[in-house]
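Follow-up to my post from last week.
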Amino acid sequence: MKYTPVIGLEVHVELKTASKMFCRCSADYFGREPNTHTCPVCLGLPGALPVPNKRAIEWCIMVALSLNCEINLLSKFDRKNYFYPDLAKGYQISQYDLPFGKNGYMSLINGKKIRIRRVHMEEDTAKLAHSQLGISNDKFPISNDQKVSLIDFNRSGVPLVEIVTEPDFSQATEVKEYLQKLQQIVRYLNVSNADMERGDMRLEPNISLSVMSNIQYPIPNEKLPKYKVEVKNINSFRFVEKAINFEIERQEKILEKGELPLQETRGWNEFKNQTISQRLKEEANDYRYFPEPDIPPIHFTKEQVSTIRSLVPELPGAKLSRFLHEFSLNNYDVEILTRDKLLADYFEEVVRVGKDHNVSPKQIANWIINKKPDIGEVLPASLVKQIIQSTQVTVVDEVELKKVIQDVLEKNQRAVLDYKSGKETVIMFLVGQVMRQFKIKIDAQIVKMKIISLIQ
Amino acid sequence: MSLNKLTLKEATEGLQAKEFSSVELTKDCLDRIKETDEKLHTLVTLTESVALEDARRADELIAAGNNKPLLGIPFVIKDNFSTKGIQTTASSNVLKGYIPPYDATVVSRLKNAGMVMLGKANMDAFAHGSSTETSDFGTTKNPWNTGYLPGGSSGGTAAAVASDQTIAGIGSETAGSIRQPASWCSIVGLKPTYGRVSRYGVVAMASSTDSPGPMTKTVEDSALILNTLAGKDNHDATSSPLPTSDYTKDLRKPIKGKKIGMSSKYLEGVDSEVVKAFEEARRVFEKLGATVVDIADLGVEILDPRYSISVYTILQRAEVSSNLARFDGIRFGNDREHFGEEAKRRIMLGTYTLSAGYYDAYYKKALKVRTIIVNEFHKMFEAVDSFIASTSPSTALPLGSSKNHPMFGEMADVLVEPSSIAGLPGINVPCGFSSNDLPIGLQIMGPQFAEASILNFAHQFEISTEWHLRKPNL
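User reply:
Got it. Predicted complex:
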């Protein structure tokens, strides 16, 4: 391909705070009866005022710090004005020129640093449901053939963190790796479930193609392509990958014809497996940002930021390299063990207990990875016990063993012949057959030697 | 004597001494409303049954020995304060029929203190104006001459207090909306420091300057009400955590030796009769032993107050355009077709000034000038204890005056806008009458959170004059 994709990413992560961003309503909206978690503030009733959720702001800063961002000691909220029926106030409270975090990065496995432009805080909108089936009851006297749009305000005002990268990705696989790492980080921080199915993470890649070969990252602004296509609100990593690859192909065809792709916003249609134009640049909103007068600017001291920093646990990347080197495990093991913080913590706890019983981290890692114990059920001490039991070898009575082996060889003459004719792997089948006759675990090596000597 | 003529202080004392009941007091007010409302049209919604029920409950509490500060006292509340279960329209057809499910903090504090609610007072629609002529439910008339405007936007409250339809009232000021109608109707109107009284539940006009406050017959009444209203509200992030005090405590302090500032820039373009009344007011203070000096003589330079019209117009229109966006007709009230001319004009101007490419030239620049004005006042109050000026450049104007002047309100409010955009407290006290018997007001401004101080100056002025004792003939 003679074009190089230039890809940036905006991700919205919904926080799992107990209450909403600007009121005291429960933020736990998923699957709840519509319009039960509402109040004058999140309904945008006349006169209602937003009061920011301190915990949400701290969590946003934790996310920013985890992405190596600088924290603005003076920050503020701004109003982003636009009209949509799911936006109660006619504006969204967001952050414009002074986001909580800026200038961060995330490192990818290939050594590339993806620059994070900003990490800011905003509020979610209500949820629209478009239905053709009318709900006819006392509350909604709608006849059955009518089309209706219903608004559920339970989600209105739920805290969102938006993370914006610079256009530093050049392929979909990098985007996917970034997203997986980001998901892992917010889960480690325990600030979001980051559950894609529930819409906890919403993804918006912007894609364009550069004609430059041999691109050096980061690409200076003046060398970026003259257009940009945004794909809105994708809710799965797989779809992001597909949407990016679709766009690369689509834009390439246009460029091949000597034309420039339109600057526009597109949506991913998961049924047609393609992106579909939604809005051209000319129709783009002017959001008329201005400082939110209902919320005073927010000042942080360096000490306050340090305090928040101290709440950030060891992150997946750091844990991974520590496990590698502290427990002498391989990359494969460590990658699995650190995927989830609870599992990683569990592993370390078992290692601690195992140390007193001469059970090695490698044994524990193997056991956890292969046997997948229910870490909520099996206590670390019990796991260590299981491992020890499994390795204890009982000495078997020689005479009995010989008897059993002869019996097995008798019954499996075909295998014996195979072995004799040089098919040595069949020996393990015979070992298995012998061991099956014993209720206790016996040393396979001894059995093997015995079988060989008896055959010969 | 009709009980409705009492001041809040007198009414409270009478109620506590059981000279009369709250029901009797309330009925006198209701009678007065019925008797004069055709002429004045002060209310959007009369809440007679609520009032009588509130009064009965107050009487029970009084009988049980309760002496909450505002127990059994009738109030009218400007119609931009959310009142649970009672229609709240901000005098706009857009909100006609809207019944809030919650009380504004000011309303809940008054209720907790024992208020009796007579009704919701008329105002300029969404508080856009200084006349009440932009109300979608008819213009309120000035009790002193019903051919004249009461001022606004809290014109309904001002006229109701001035005509003794109520013992006291609540207004809100963004830039002049308490002080200017108080001046035109000859009552006391206190605009507290921005953030001293919660805005929660007040239909927002310009969020960065909206300040609810009392409108009363005397300075002491305003102080008594402020005691209930002031203080941090967890529902309003801009409300101040600074401690409040008993605002009646300093009223009687002599002001001898105090330094009061004035500025000749506040006299330019002001009616000669209004200037004359101001000069007399100045002499009253001097007789009380204070010195009144032109701040220019102290080396304090200030911008011509007319600059604040530009600043205020830009900031306020911008905030209005955003604040009114929620009235989309989807969930409550009527759709946007029902906005009046003034609201539409403000939405358009505000939308324009916030648009890409214009923000820096207008909004950002206005913020910078606002900072200059804030700093000027800061310097001024290092040199003087308070600052006095006429409240309005004229007395009340005839009905219809605002109709063809989109900037009518701003011109009428030119002398209150600088202190409003600086968020400072100010109070209007009656200081005279024109040759055609229309009231003239004096405003006393102070530094941030100096309510106790300006109330002290105002009270000392009031007890040295008799303007506040005059009543309109209706």
